[in-house]
Amino acid sequence: MTLRRDMGNKQLLLLHSIASSRTGFLGLCLVSAMALMAVFAPWIAPYDPTQIDMLNRLQPPSLSHWMGTDLTGRDVFSRLIWGARPSLQVGILAVLIGLPGGFAVGLLAGFYRGTILEAILMRIVEIIAAVPLLIVAIAVVGVLGVKPMPLGPFMITNEVKIIVVLGFLYIPGLARVVFAVAASEATSDYIRARRIQGVGDFTLMVSDILPNCLSVVIVWGTLLTAGGVLAEAGLSFVGLGVQPPDASWGVMLSDARKFIFSGEWWLLLFPGLAISLTVIGLNLLGDALRDILDPRQYTGPRLD
Amino acid sequence: MLEPTVVNGQILLKVQSLTKDFPIGGNVLSRIAGHTRVMRAVNEVSFTINRGEVVGLVGESGCGKSTSALMLLRLLNATSGKIHYRGKEITELQGAELTSFRRQVQMVFQDSHSALNPRKVVRRTLHEALRARYGRTPDLEEKAIELLRTTGLGVEILGRYPHELSGGQRQRIGIARAMAMEPEFIVADEPVSSLDVSLQAQIINVFQSLREERGLTMMLISHDLALVNFLCNRVLVMYAGEVVESGISEQVMKHAAHPYTQALIGAVPRGLAGRGQRTQALAGTSETLGKGCSFAPRCPVATQYCQEVAPKNKAISEGHTAACHLL
Amino acid sequence: MDNRLLEVSNLRVAFPVGNAMAEAVRGVSFGIDTGDAVGVLGESGSGKSVTALAILKLIPSTGRITEGSVRFAGRDLLSMSEANIRKLRGRDLSMVFQDPLTAFNPALRIGRQLLNVIRAHTSSSIQNARARALEVLDLVGLPDPARVMRAYPHELSGGMRQRALIGIALACNPKLLIADEPTTALDVTIQAQIVELFHKLRTELGLTLLYITHNLDLMAELCDRAIVMYAGNIVEEGSVTDLFQSPRHPYTRMLIDCVPRLEDARNRELTVIKGMPPPINATNRGCLFSPRCPSVIDRCRVDDPQEDFEGERRFACWNPRL
């Protein structure tokens, strides 16, 4: 699967390549569906997700409530749609927060491989990698509480705290992946050629090595986003994430805990399905991207 | 093919006792502290290059020729020794002086997958090189096109990625990139070894014409004796990190003094002339004893003395030296 | 004709490029008699390696042998089942590849890999197989064969690895050994050792050899006859002496002249073949070498060159050098 250059715009090329592979196409569809759901929630959701209606609680799916109602009568379908927001937000934003740190550490450690700097940076990375998400989340929430806290002009919701914590914990994964590429590219002849043009280390890292790291970061990033969706669901499930009355898939599952054995299957199925499909979609997308962006495509068929 | 004009025997590059040790084993800390064993990749190498010359550095893999070249360009720091370029010591240069040195000495690398940044189109690679030399001038594109022309490439190459080019085209880009800095001295490290035979001749031609047009001084590093004999007027033979023989190409190739040079020349396939004449091929590999002559373990005429005492370079005739006790 | 060990007729091999199939080998025919040493000379894109792989039916699964036949010791290889041809490979018909490092399994000792081959093709006992293995390693000139048996591939030097690889190829006394650029990755002094080994194997064992290389002088030392390939076709074939002293095809001539040699005068003009070999999916009419040929005439661009025969020689050119 080679990218043809006659298609002009690189992003369009990429999209075309993704759409051409079966896994990529499926992944793209799933992720797009969830993303669109999140973006257009205010317009798609038939009901207010926090609207309580005790008279109609625990109704199975019907024409008026496509996915039924939950224990306080809120429309499951609307909550599902709105719940896409925190899931995707956490997934994507956490990765975005981890990126600068991951790049910085990975590039420096890889470029200065064999020096004390690399040794120090990689040890720090190992320490951070050893930290379990749940423990830290509990610690952070224990110290700061689950209520929104004011920070200057902003209100930091619990979701934001999760995003920051997760982003920080993502640094090791990203750093390692960048490190691998940076370390191998740093010894290339083209870097030497740039050096003898008089170019300094920082420019080399940013202008020459960083672009070569992009494809691995994109792939790893999609997989970490999937991880973020799961992390948000898990943390919200135990009450450390999104706080009621807001909707998130994890919160919906948490609310449904009491009803696992009592026959209200719609409370568990739909959020569970939403989480699974999103994660599957992201993984498929990541797989497809990995194949497309594989540097193997740079060497054409060598037939002798 | 024009004989290179040597300008009044003016020395351009003088290398004295250049040495490079690499630490092996241990971890980062012990290596920085210097507490590990070392491997001596280059051992007290000395030579000079005159303006206008083409000097060949010949040897097999692991002999230290590429390491020496990297030190000449300050891409690697020498463990000890001195390098004088145009009379100025360059081993300790920093900052603006180093940048100015960079403009005068450039390198052409072997065509590997890492000789050109796979993410950059040719235009970008050349523009960057030109910008490093000229700063932000408005005519970068014209200059880039001119560079391509001098290496025999057309304008359409500018928009291509390295993986869309053939080995020969990539190598020409490598030469163009080096020439963008307008150097007076170029080190070419195995510039044609990974190319098809018919393309090698094309690239050799590019080097020839550049030399003739601009009076470039060149150092060609190669394992290919015939190529070195063809292009270079002087040759240095390296073995296990040392220069074991040096002199005028014709002299060294026809009257090789050092047993290793003789073995190297003997190992070159001779085509029809080589049929039926089985020269005794050199046995063994280039592992050294640690003392004495580094070639002694494989040398067909080594003596006990050779294994004890390392030989020094001595003059055999005008301009021809070799490091062997038996001369 | 009873001496004919290998007969390749009109072999065509194609690979998918983009949406179409492109021919890497375009109708190649040649023969090897027992005891011969035949060289295949060509550059990248000539189809020389694909031809060799096709003989052993080892071309990558994306490729296809679209036409032709390969007869080995009278048997048609192309119509053989995979099971039958596997019995031949490694036993009667063997191959040595260019890169000795990747040709070995890095996780297994040399001895184990050698024994695997021997026991796959013969019904020897372990002791006999082991004895044969040591014999073979000695045959290829490895000092201390017992130590080599215990070693892993990365523990050996490049030259020793290549010898071991040749040893594995010879373990079951093949009738024909195909060597694809076996010395390209090696230093020149090691290369000379390996060439000497091949020579010894030919004289002592009467080994029949098909030697693929791009190095003319190497091939001329080792082989008696050679085939010159360009863009999937055989452009010339003849004795090595004839090829070097009086090449008929312009490509052969230019290939010989564009390589610098130690014996040459230093200021000899180096012939340059301008341009590049055609891409694998080239479909121009006429001779594929015509865009680069200095002796091109109009007919070359229109008609595919026909083969001309001259005793033991043949060449395909409308305007050969005579």
Task: Give a description of the structure.
The complex is a heterotrimer of chains A (304), B (327) and C (322). In chain A, 67% of the residues lie in helices and 2% in strands. The radius of gyration of chain A is 23 Å and the shape is elongated. With 304 residues, chain A is an all-alpha fold. Chain A has eleven helices and two strands, in the order ααααααββααααα. By secondary structure, chain B is of the alpha/beta class. In chain B, the strands form two sheets. An eight-stranded mixed β-sheet of chain B has the order 6-7-8-3-9-10-12-11, with helices on both faces. In chain B, strands 2-1-4-5 form a four-stranded antiparallel β-sheet. Chain B starts with 10 loop residues before the first strand and ends in a 5-residue tail after the last strand. Chain C has 322 residues and is an alpha/beta fold. Chain C is 32% helix and 25% strand. Chain C has eleven helices and twelve strands. In chain C, the strands form two sheets. In chain C, strands 6-7-8-3-9-10-12-11 form an eight-stranded mixed β-sheet, with helices on both faces. A four-stranded antiparallel β-sheet of chain C has the order 2-1-4-5. The mean pLDDT of chain C is 89. Chains B and C meet through helix 7, helix 8, helix 9 and helix 10 of B and helix 8, helix 9 and helix 10 of C.
Key phrases:
heterotrimer, B: 327 residues, alpha/beta, Rossmann fold, 8-stranded mixed sheet, 4-stranded antiparallel sheet, 11 helices, C: 322 residues
